Amino acid sequence: MQIRRLGQRPYAEVETAMRDFTRTRHEATEDELWLVEHEPVYTQGVAGRADHVLNPGSIPVLRTDRGGQVTYHGPGQVVAYPLLDLRRLAIYVKEYVFRIEQAVIDTLLDFGVTGHRVRSAPGIYVRLDDPCGHAVLVPEAGDPFKGLGKIAALGIKVSNHRSWHGVALNVAMDLEPYRRINPCGYAGLATVDLRAVGVEVSWDEAAARLATRLASRLGD
Known about the structure:
This protein is an alpha/beta fold and 220 residues long. It has four helices and eleven strands. The strands form two sheets. Strands 1, 2, 6, 7, 8, 9, 10 and 11 form an eight-stranded mixed sheet that branches. Helix 3 (93-110) crosses helix 4 (203-218).
C-alpha cells in the first residue's frame, strides 16, 4: 500500500481525484492510502437528510456518494482514504468496515484512549467521563450514546469491489461546527477530539499513527 500525504486540500478536489483514481485503476494498480486535512465543509452521504443540517452558516454543504448522513470536516482532523481492491485482498464490505474501525481503536490506544463501537452506528466513540478506562461499554436502553462522544466518523463507498472515501479522526479541532448539525444523523450526539480528552498530539503524528494502523489492518 502506497501512503500519500496530500496536506490541506478542498474536499471537492480530493473527492474528484478519488473518483478518477477508482474509475481508471486496473487489476495491477497498487492500493493507496491518502491522508488529508480538509478546509471547513459539511458533507452529506447518499441518504443524507437536509433537516440534519441545522445552521451551516458560511460553511459549504456538499453532496457526496459515500454512505452515511451529514458530518463535518475541518482543520485539526486527520482524514484517511483507503483506495483498495477489496477483491484482491479478499475482504468483504462488513469486514472492511470492522478493520477500519479497529485501526482507529488501535490508534487511540497508542495515545492511551479507549475507543468503543456502538451497534448500528458506524464510527468510534469514547466515554466522556473516563476516556482512558477499559470497562466494557454497556449502552443504555433507549439512548446508546449516553455518556459518549464521537471521535471518529466513517463513511465509505465501494464500486466494483474498489473502495474509496474513508474515516476521519478528530485530533485538535474547532468543534463548534458540529453543533450546527445532527452529527451522522443523531440529534444531540456529542463530538470530541483527542485534545478534548486530554491528549495533545500534532496532526502529523496522529496521521502517521493512523496510517500505520490502517496499513496493518488492511494489508494482504
